[in-house]
C-alpha cells in the first residue's frame, strides 16, 4: 500500500460527529475557492466552492465558510461517515490567474467507527 | 461514462526513457490541465490548454511537452525521464477556462515510477 502522505495533518473523528477542516490562504487577491476530496488511489473530487462575495455556502452535509479578513477557509462535514475518510484539499485562484488553481497541503480525515 | 480518463494508470520505466500519458474528457469542456502530485501529496499545476491553445505554462523542465490535438484531448510527453519525475500526474478539465475561476474536474491519475 501507499505510505505517502503520512506527514499530512490528520483529523480523527468519530462516526456521526461533525468534522471541521481548516485552510489558511496567503493571497488576499484570491476570489474563488474550492474544496476537493481525494480518496486513496483516486483523483481529487469536487465537493463545494465559494466566491469571495459570500462568506458561507451549504451543500449536502457540507458547509464552507470564508473569512477574508483573516484569509481562512473551513469545510464542515455534518454527521461524518466512514466514506468521508480521505485527504481534503482547499484550492484558490484569482481573476488574473487565468483559472490557475493553487492547492493547499491537504488534511487527512480518518473516521473511526 | 468516465468524464476525464487517463492512460495508462500505472507507468514504470527506466531513467532516460521517453514516455507519454494520454488524457481525454467527454464533458465538452474547452479547457484542460496537467497537474503533478508529489510523494507528499502536494498538487501543482503544470500546464493548461484552452481550445488547443496553451494558456498556462508553469516552471516545468522543457523535457515535458504537452500536446492538444483537439479540445477533448491533452497528452503529456516526457523526454529523458529522471528519478524526480516519479509522481502521480493528473489531468483535469473545466468548462471554458474563464479567468474568474470555475470548477475543475480531475481524472483518476497516472502513477509514474522512474527506476
How does this structure look, described?
The complex is a heterodimer of chains A (113) and B (115). Chain A is an all-beta fold and 113 residues long. Chain A has one domain: Immunoglobulins (Immunoglobulin-like), CATH 2.60.40. Helices cover 0% and strands 50% of the residues of chain A. Chain A is built from no helices and ten strands. Chain A has strands spanning 10-14, 19-24, 32-38, 45-51, 56-58, 62-67, 72-77, 86-93, 102-103, 107-112. In chain A, the strands form two sheets. In chain A, strands 1, 3, 4, 8, 9 and 10 form a six-stranded mixed sheet that branches. Chain A is globular. By secondary structure, chain B is mostly beta strands. Chain B has one domain: Immunoglobulins (Immunoglobulin-like, Sandwich). Chain B has strands spanning 4-7, 10-13, 19-25, 31-37, 43-50, 53-57, 64-70, 73-78, 87-94, 105-106, 110-114. In chain B, strands 2, 4, 5, 6, 9, 10 and 11 form a seven-stranded mixed sheet that branches. A four-stranded antiparallel sheet of chain B has the order 1-3-8-7, with no helix packed on it. Chain B is globular. The relative contact order of chain B is 0.33. The model of chain B has no long low-confidence stretch (mean pLDDT 93).
Please outline the helices and strands.
The complex is a heterodimer of chains A (113) and B (115).
Chain A (H helix, E strand, L loop, with lengths): L9 E5 L4 E6 L7 E7 L6 E7 L4 E3 L3 E6 L4 E6 L8 E8 L8 E2 L3 E6 L1
Parallel strand pairs in A: 1-10
Antiparallel strand pairs in A: 2-7, 3-4, 3-8, 5-6, 6-7, 8-9, 8-10
Chain B lengths: L3 E4 L2 E4 L5 E7 L5 E7 L5 E8 L2 E5 L6 E7 L2 E6 L8 E8 L10 E2 L3 E5 L1
Parallel strand pairs in B: 2-11
Antiparallel strand pairs in B: 1-3, 3-8, 4-5, 4-9, 5-6, 7-8, 9-10, 9-11
Amino acid at each position: 500500500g501507499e505510505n505517502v502522505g503520512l506527514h499530512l495533518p490528520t483529523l480523527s473523528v468519530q462516526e456521526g460527529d461533525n468534522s471541521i477542516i481548516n485552510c489558511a490562504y496567503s493571497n488576499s487577491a484570491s476570489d474563488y475557492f474550492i474544496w476537493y476530496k481525494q480518496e486513496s488511489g483516486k483523483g481529487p473530487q469536487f465537493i463545494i466552492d465559494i466566491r469571495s462575495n459570500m462568506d458561507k455556502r451549504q451543500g449536502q452535509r457540507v458547509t464552507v465558510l470564508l473569512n477574508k479578513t483573516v484569509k481562512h477557509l473551513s469545510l464542515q462535514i455534518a454527521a461524518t461517515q466512514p466514506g468521508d475518510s480521505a485527504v481534503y484539499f482547499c484550492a484558490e485562484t484569482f481573476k488574473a490567474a487565468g483559472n490557475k488553481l493553487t492547492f493547499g497541503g491537504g488534511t487527512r480525515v480518518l473516521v473511526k467507527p | 461514462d468516465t468524464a476525464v480518463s487517463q492512460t495508462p494508470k500505472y507507468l514504470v520505466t527506466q531513467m532516460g526513457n521517453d514516455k507519454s500519458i494520454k488524457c481525454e474528457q467527454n464533458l465538452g469542456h474547452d479547457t484542460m490541465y496537467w497537474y503533478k502530485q508529489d510523494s507528499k501529496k502536494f498538487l501543482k499545476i503544470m500546464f493548461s490548454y484552452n481550445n488547443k491553445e496553451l494558456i498556462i505554462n508553469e516552471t516545468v523542465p522543457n523535457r515535458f511537452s504537452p500536446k492538444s490535438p483537439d479540445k477533448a484531448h491533452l497528452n503529456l510527453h516526457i523526454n529523458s525521464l529522471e528519478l524526480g519525475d516519479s509522481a502521480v500526474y493528473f489531468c483535469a478539465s473545466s468548462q471554458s477556462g474563464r479567468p474568474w475561476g470555475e470548477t475543475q474536474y480531475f481524472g483518476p491519475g497516472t502513477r509514474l515510477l522512474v527506476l
